[in-house]
Design goal:
163 residues; alpha+beta; 25% helix
Length: 163
C-alpha cells in the first residue's frame, strides 16, 4: 500500500485530501480541479467560481533571506538507531530547567492516531506526565498531522511541547 496513492493535495490551497474524503463526498473534483472540503464549501458559496479562491500572500520579515525548501525531499524519518532506543533519560540533560525563564530548555513530543479514543488517551498521558513533573512549566506547544510508520502507515496527531 503506497501512501502517495491515498493522499492527494487540494489544487487550490494544497491541503491533504485522503481517499476517504473523495469516497464520502466531502472533497471532490470541480471544473477539473481536486478541491478539499473547505475549498468545496467556498466553491459552493461563490456560486461555482473557483478562480475567486486566490492564495493568501504573506509579508516576509526578511526579504533578503533565502527561500526555505518545503519539498517532501526535505522530510526524513528517524529510525530507532538514529534517535536511540527507548525514551530519553531526562536526568542526563545538562541544561537545567528554568521555570521562570523566557526560553524553553527541553522538548517532549507526544503522538497518537487520529481518533477520539486515541486523542483522549494522549491527553491523559500528557496530564499524567505534567502531574509527575512539578518542575515543568510549559513555554510553547505545536501540533501537526504527519504519517507514522508502524504496522500500518497512518496519519498521526503530533504535539511537541517545549518546557
Amino acid at each position: 500500500m503506497k501512501v502517495d496513492d491515498e493522499v492527494k493535495a487540494c489544487e487550490e490551497c494544497g491541503a491533504s485530501v485522503y481517499k476517504e474524503h473523495l469516497t464520502s463526498g466531502i472533497a471532490r473534483y470541480e471544473d477539473g480541479k481536486l478541491l478539499c472540503s473547505h475549498c468545496v464549501a467556498e466553491y459552493e458559496k461563490s456560486g461555482g467560481a473557483v478562480d475567486d479562491l486566490a492564495p493568501i500572500e504573506f509579508e516576509d520579515d526578511d526579504e533578503g533571506a533565502p527561500a526555505v525548501d518545503m519539498s517532501s525531499s526535505r522530510i526524513h524519518t528517524l529510525t530507532d538507531a538514529a534517535r536511540g532506543k527507548g525514551v530519553r533519560d531526562e536526568s542526563k540533560s545538562k541544561r537545567p530547567l528554568d521555570p521562570k525563564g523566557v526560553g524553553a530548555s527541553r522538548v517532549r513530543t507526544f503522538h497518537c492516531r487520529i481518533s477520539q479514543g486515541a486523542v483522549d488517551f494522549m491527553m491523559n498521558q500528557m496530564n499524567e506526565w505534567l502531574d509527575d513533573h512539578d518542575d515543568v512549566t510549559l513555554k510553547f506547544a505545536t501540533t501537526t498531522i504527519g504519517m507514522f510508520e508502524g504496522k500500518h502507515t497512518e496519519p498521526n496527531l503530533i504535539m511537541t511541547v517545549f518546557y
